[in-house]
Amino acid sequence: MIPINKPIISNEEKEMVIKVLESGILTNPSIEGGPFVREFEKELANFMKVKDAIVVNSGTAALQIALMALGIKPGDEVIVPSFTFVATANAVILVGAKPIFVDIDIETYNIDIKSFKNAITKRTKAVIPVDLYGLPVEMDEIREIANEYGLFIIEDACQAQGAIYKGRMAGTIGDIGCLSFYPGKVMTTGEGGAILVNNDELGRKIRMIRTHGQIKGYDSVILGGNFRMSEINAAIGLVQLRKLPSFLEKRAKNAKLLMKLLEDSNVILPKIPDYSIHNWYLFTIRLRNEKERDYVREKLLKEGIQATVYYPTPIHKLPYYKSIGYGDLNLPNSELASKTVLSLPVHPLVKEEDIEKMSKIILSSTS
């Protein structure tokens, strides 16, 4: 089976893990973190071209900490797209605020600008635009509206590390950016995430929140938790980050070939603006209806290709969110996408012959 995504681990990562184990320093509760955490943060900030990168134990933690650092609290509203992974909304709930779900642009699968603007109220404090599948959101338009209404922007770039919007790295354009290093992402630390900022005061506050609101130890001055990344995870991340450019290059090569082979098909292909660079975390096509999507997926699965639906249910339709009153929301593009999208593997382990096989199955199944 060709998996939809897979971590690429070599002897280099294994050797770094052994190095950490032999050092005896597996984690460090100080505000600065341990030696591998500090080195990983420095290299990550340089790669992302941002002032500060604070690594944490998951992308979800990154989102929650971002909200805490900006003072989002009960009674506040935070606008989020419904068509994304549930972590984006869960982070809002976890700080006691209220997620306000909006629809997506059906062409890009990212937040619809008009829906975003129409959802703003006196209680709105922030927006979390998601760079879905690895395509940067229209941040200039988001920023213009956010500035008009005095809103914070938390850019959820958990799927978009290495993607570029008008010359700037995804995750570095909002007030805070968040990354994920889950094993299926374009690089991994095993589990992990990062918070990107260009503000010293905000960066220091985030580091405090990461370790129980402490500065020197046993002196909690603000509310925080244990969101620390371990030294083992950081060591893996260091190696993966150095490999990331080659990973992204191979993904782009695979995506380009698949795009070419499917250009005359009946499927709707990804649309990338000239000023954006996709990181090809996921190559997502759209079929004409749910029946055709499921048929194509079954054909691919039978041939050993793990075509996957991201996401089969918009967040507002998930059982928990239905139980707290969101189930009757009308977000037609989110619901259409959930019934018609299909993501295909283009990660670095996918070979040219795999791409050709995929395209033949799709072409024969949709003619």
Automatic annotation (TrEMBL):
Keyword entries, A-Z: Aminotransferase, Pyridoxal phosphate, Transferase
GO BP of this protein: polysaccharide biosynthetic process
Molecular function (Gene Ontology), one example: transaminase activity
InterPro entries: DegT/StrS_aminotransferase, PyrdxlP-dep_Trfase, PyrdxlP-dep_Trfase_major, PyrdxlP-dep_Trfase_small
Keyword Transferase included in the entry's annotation: yes
Keyword Repeat: no
PANTHER family named among the record's database cross-references: DTDP-4-AMINO-4,6-DIDEOXYGALACTOSE TRANSAMINASE, TRANSAMINASE
Family of the protein in this entry: Belongs to the DegT/DnrJ/EryC1 family.
Protein name: DegT/DnrJ/EryC1/StrS family aminotransferase
Record organism: Thermoproteota archaeon
Lineage: Archaea, Thermoproteota
